Protein: Family with sequence similarity 180 member A
Organism: Chinchilla lanigera
Amino acid sequence: MCWKTLLLLLLYYNAQATVSHRWSRAILFPAAHRPKRSSSVPLNPVLQTSLEEVELLYELLLAELEISPDLKISVKDEELASLRKASNFRTICNDVIPKRIPDIRRLSASLASRPGILKKEDFERTVLTLAYTAYRTALSQGYQKDVWAQALVSLFQALRHDLIQSSRPRVSPSELGRHQDLEPGTSTQ
């Protein structure tokens, strides 16, 4: 009887560990996966699919942005605002990224406890959240400025950690075993 209970607990633990990792990936930007009935916005929009689009994103971020009282972001430059990718930019900024301090803190906490590296779209959205947070920090005063600055720093640290993780060389399990068998100060060459 005891071994059946142990087996059941082991199975439950493995199932719980598998499910929690699978679901933790989807909760960074839940609005990206939630379709809106009144909109023709694509599900899970992404801005950067080529080098030209990365450069366009850079131009959009350098252009003068306006944040309305209801926290809607728009590009003031009419030429840039008329581009199709600018529409995706507005969608991501207005419907996907978090814009309130509690939501940004929740994102930062999720990023800090997340194993592995971010997917391209999650990295992009985190960078846009960082840019939005920097903009709000610059506009704030007093205590609010400190709160926004803390959120800015935690997002920056999460992105920095992700960049460091993604720039490390990939090591296969067999190579890891070989490197652990070596004495300190010796090499395989």
